């Protein structure tokens, strides 16, 4: 069994000013799970202190100096981020992210539901990843329960992909219903938070995050060194514009 731990960055609301909505899945073999939890716990024991000693890893709040990280000095902030992304680089995980370009999505797919599209693509890509592994293991989904308003919608998306499509379209390696768990008790959901935020910043060309992107990029699912359309899935791609111009 593999655990698939998911968190997001940005907003799925097409009316706000953000360009991307990013979902990231951190995928890990069950046999590695306890050791990885231990490594993340040790990172927090070593680096989290003062007002945020018992806090979760939330990179947006840390980077923007929002509670509980308001007292963090600039050099301390970057030290925390440096060590966090170095840790992620060393973990036995694989990453799959989906980034919806909201302006292109609204322009070309205005009749589609953005939230449903993003989660459907992510689940399908995670299923493809599991099928690519030698033993084709099953996967169990874990999602931050703070997405409470969307529990039913996410469960219905998985149910449709598991049961209501043709045999060749079904996601057959992702089993059961998703578990909605507290990110406070799930270190890998916190890691997915850090990955989603870094991916969002990378796509937004935020220079301060490029060195962090270079650390996490090797962990992305890839084929012959290629992560596009494997580990990193941008939808719609800018190729749609060149296609329309032809």
Short summary of the structure?
By secondary structure, the chain is an alpha/beta fold.
Helix content: 40-55%
How would you describe the shape? globular
Structural class: alpha/beta
β-strand amount? 15-25%
For the termini, the CA-CA separation is 46 Å
Overall mean pLDDT score? 91
Q: Major β-sheet, in short?
A: 6 strands, mixed
> In which order are the strands of the major sheet placed?
5-4-1-2-3-6
The number of distinct helices, counting runs of at least 4 residues, comes to 9
- Any low-confidence stretches, pLDDT <50, length ≥5? 241-246
Instruction: Tell me the domain tally.
Output: 1
**Secondary-structure element string:** EEHHHEHHEHEHHEH
User: How big is the Rg?
Assistant: 18 Å
Q: What is the β-strand count?
A: 6
Q: What can you see in these coordinates?
A:
The structure is a single chain. By secondary structure, this protein is α/β, with parallel strands linked by helices. It has one domain (8-137, 183-245). 43% of the residues lie in helices and 16% in strands. It contains nine helices and six strands, in the order E-E-H-H-H-E-H-H-E-H-E-H-H-E-H. The chain has helices at residues 33-47, 59-63, 74-90, 102-108, 114-132, 151-163, 187-203, 210-216, 239-245, and strands at 2-10, 20-29, 94-101, 139-144, 179-181, 232-235. The protein has a six-stranded mixed sheet with strand order 5-4-1-2-3-6, with helices on both faces. Strand 4, helix 6 and strand 5 form a beta-alpha-beta unit. Helix 3 runs parallel beside helix 8 and helix 5 crosses helix 6. The chain is globular and about 55 Å long. The N and C termini lie far apart (46 Å). The model is unreliable at 241-246 (pLDDT under 50).
């Amino acid at each position: 069994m593999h655990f698939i731990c998911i968190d997001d960055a940005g907003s799925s609301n097409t009316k706000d000013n953000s360009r991307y909505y990013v979902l990231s899945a951190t995928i890990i073999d069950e046999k590695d799970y306890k050791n990885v939890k231990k490594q993340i716990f040790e990172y927090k024991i070593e680096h989290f202190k003062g007002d945020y000693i018992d806090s979760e890893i939330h990179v947006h709040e840390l980077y923007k100096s929002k509670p509980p990280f308001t007292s963090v000095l600039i050099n301390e902030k970057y030290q925390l981020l440096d060590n966090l992304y170095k840790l992620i680089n060393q973990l036995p995980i694989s990453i799959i992210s989906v980034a919806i370009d909201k302006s292109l999505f609204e322009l070309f797919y205005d009749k589609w539901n953005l939230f449903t599209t993003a989660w459907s693509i992510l689940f399908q890509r995670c299923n493809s990843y599991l099928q690519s592994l030698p033993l084709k293991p099953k996967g169990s989904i874990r999602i931050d329960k703070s997405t409470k308003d969307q529990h039913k919608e996410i469960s219905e998306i998985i149910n449709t992909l598991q049961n209501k499509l043709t045999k060749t379209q079904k996601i057959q390696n992702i089993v059961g219903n998703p578990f909605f768990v507290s990110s406070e008790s799930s270190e890998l959901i916190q890691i997915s938070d850090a990955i989603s935020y870094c991916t969002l910043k990378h796509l937004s060309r935020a220079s301060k995050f490029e060195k962090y992107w270079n650390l996490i990029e090797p962990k992305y699912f890839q084929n012959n060194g290629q992560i596009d359309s494997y580990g990193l899935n941008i939808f719609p791609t800018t190729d749609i514009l060149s296609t329309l111009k032809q």
